[in-house]
Amino acid sequence: MLFGMAVNEALLLVRAQVEMNPRANLLETWEAAVSAMQVSEAAFAAAAVSEGSVERRIAGEMRSIPATGPQFYAHAGNWLTAFWLAVTCRDQERMTHLCRVPIGVLRASGVEGDDYLYHWVDALQTYWLEEPGLVDKLTAAIETSHPDVATIAPRDLLQNVLYPPINLFYRFLRKEHGAFNAALAEALELHKRYWTTNEERSDDIEGCLALGPLAVACLAYDAGFPIEVESDYLPHHLLRRTWVGEFPV
């Protein structure tokens, strides 16, 4: 499977579905989200091993996927996307598999990224696997995501799209319901600001879904947080797990 192309196509499909069905009340939108999750996680499962194969369910069938070792598409940014999809689909098994992908595999992709990305991935893996050091790792992610430190990502992308999920996750860990909802509203406003700043971005389908904020909001919703923010960037039925269990994933 040409994973680089398959991942991009699966993500394009889920965004197209969300653009047409922003509340995600149609089964097709859930199917697209699940498919994107399956393909994205499988890419990292194959990249994490250098021999043999891994077994994964994709598009309703169990498939044997040959090991690939590190690949250009198995980088930290795509890991975050895969993890956010797994969180949104409430697939705890895939979340665990992703959290066991070594940081070294992501670095070996050859894709240059700011250091904060690796601290951020490390913090999420530590959180989900319930390992020690979460506070220090999240602090490192926050400090290294400052625009004066993180210089590879464009400043406006960093401030409006890439950093807000980190702040949101911090509020989630502190169990600050009011502050979490305020941070969620701000994250969605920043997302909108970035993706509507000019005609080219407004026409880009990537902007129709705030995947990072959605995923952290899913963690909070499942932990009993009252989610008081409504937005087309935050599909209602994905957030509220309406479709979970509809079919084997």
How is this structure best summarized?
The chain is mainly alpha-helical and 249 residues long. It contains 13 helices and two strands; from the N terminus they run ααββααααααααααα. The protein has one domain.
> What does the average pLDDT come to?
97
- For the secondary structure, the number of strands is 2
How many individual domains? 1
Distance between the amino and carboxyl termini = 19 Å
Strand content: under 5%
Characterize the overall form.
Answer: globular
Assembly level:
single chain
- Class by alpha and beta content: mainly alpha
The profile of the biggest β sheet is: 2 strands, antiparallel
Q: Spell the H/E element sequence.
A: HHEEHHHHHHHHHHH
Describe what you observe in this structure:
This protein is mainly alpha-helical and 249 residues long. It has one domain. It contains 13 helices and 2 strands, in the order ααββααααααααααα. The protein has helices at residues 3-20, 27-47, 76-88, 92-99, 103-107, 115-128, 134-144, 155-162, 164-173, 177-195, 199-202, 211-222, 236-239, and strands at 53-58, 61-66. It has a two-stranded antiparallel ribbon with strand order 1-2. Helix 1 (3-20) runs antiparallel to helix 2 (27-47) and helix 3 (76-88) packs antiparallel against helix 4. It is globular. It starts with a helix and ends in a 10-residue tail after the last helix.
